[in-house]
């Protein structure tokens, strides 16, 4: 199977006052279709930065990122935005739904940023996804009126509405109790298995890390062989 | 594209609904700005129309001969006809001007304000010592009775025609004023008719009589300040003007009199009004500027408040342009809403005030309102919107 995403010698530095702090350093990584990968490390290890680099929300300070063989550093803002829209779905620790929109509107939001024509009926797909994630009954609620678990389900439905090839989940269970967290993980894994979506999970929790099929350990921004 | 705009407007609307008070207060600034500008334009326009109507009442093919250098000369000394140059016209000038073939009427006017009394009632009016031709020149008709005739003029009769207003003030029933005797400057005059209302203060309070009648105690020097010339056609106005000037130059110096076209006077007046109007509108525009700054202020606050939302939108596929347009739509709608409210309020005020004062709203004010308030929305919205668009997605999404 060919690599969807390839990272070659990728570094990301942040400027903190006068000082330049490397968050991710010399990372080489290949992500293949339908994989279930865990990016693991303690807090501050650079795992979130790595995820945002993969998610095209960050650009590397040095090194190259290839998406289906294409060098993304050559892409414009609108091309990158278009890839984030079609290719990638994000799930965050703090859910990141827009509170002034209902669950239904939140799930449909990515379809509003499609340039050109949609090749599916967005409302029909939103209905399917909300049924799949089990919160169809809550579709007209505002996010702050439903539980954390339900919000994360809505966020997963939003991540999936454009039929992405890859879902990036940043500590998706971090704000949930363990039972709800398990349910969310089950749901994500089901999507990986049934729909063939590549799943990249960022976590620092060992019991969550256990479940991933391939593990990448990060320490001080570098990939290491050992966990912690 | 239409759909996109629809989504943008819907999103902005949902935000306005959530912040009703803030939306209303922000628009209020623009509303007041637009209100003041539209009202000032309306006022300027109304006054201009009013003055134009006054001039049109005089008829179109009119030349005015004034003592002094007149309107067209410009400068402060040109006002106060006759006072500087010291000349007055007399019957000889009238006779001379009558010989010009392009001129149909030569109407000399002796003008004096005076108090007329009837039955113990006293009212101030304006004596017009003139000829019967003034009525056709000014397009004046009789409301009751008759107007002065040629023989009245020639015989220096003691017959007078009253303007509608002064007749109304002196008589409870003006239609019964005919052949009543009024006293004026210690003389007795017989009213033969009442002229129609003209809407002009001097005309409506006029006491028309033969210029020859005034040659007694009223106008012992037999002089006129003004001579109106009725030209046979519009095309002949330049020739008539030239000939009249030549005729008068035989007796007077160039700077002692002026022959002015009505159009010239009108354009001078228009120029004065345009300047006044421009000054007023620029003062009014200051409030628009303040309103615009208010919008910018609120938009900066909105961008900060919604930093996280910007990050989320960027993550799910919004381009910088999408974000820019989202905030720009909001500021333009805020401003446009304020502008339309201001226009609406101005229209209502104009409708009410119109009964007392000449004001007018035209298509120009409406277009200007829409264009100006949208531009303010764009101009003052683009800085905050750019800030939102340029936010680094990661920092935005982590913002709490």
UniProtKB/TrEMBL annotation, chain A:
Keywords annotated in UniProt: ATP-binding, Nucleotide-binding, Transport
SMART domains the record matches: AAA
Matches recorded under PROSITE patterns: ABC_TRANSPORTER_1, ABC_TRANSPORTER_2
UniProt-listed InterPro entries: AAA+_ATPase, ABC_transporter-like_ATP-bd, ABC_transporter-like_CS, ABC_transpr_LolD-like, MacB-like_ATP-bd, P-loop_NTPase
Pfam family, one: ABC_tran
MF terms in GO: ATP binding; ATP hydrolysis activity; transmembrane transporter activity
Domain ABC transporter: 5-228
Keyword flag Phosphoprotein: no
GO cellular component, one term: membrane protein complex
Name the record gives this protein: ABC transporter related protein
Organism: Candidatus Woesebacteria bacterium GW2011_GWE1_45_18
Automatic annotation (TrEMBL), chain B:
Keyword Transmembrane helix annotated: yes
Membrane topology recorded in Swiss-Prot or TrEMBL: Multi-pass membrane protein
Listed transmembrane segments: 24-47, 275-303, 324-357, 363-383
Superkingdom of origin organism: Bacteria
UniProt KW keywords: Cell membrane, Membrane, Transmembrane, Transmembrane helix
Annotated ranges, domain ABC3 transporter permease C-terminal: 282-393
One Gene Ontology CC term in the entry: plasma membrane
Molecular function GO terms recorded: transmembrane transporter activity
Domain MacB-like periplasmic core: 23-246
Family: Belongs to the ABC-4 integral membrane protein family.
Protein name (Swiss-Prot/TrEMBL): ABC transporter permease
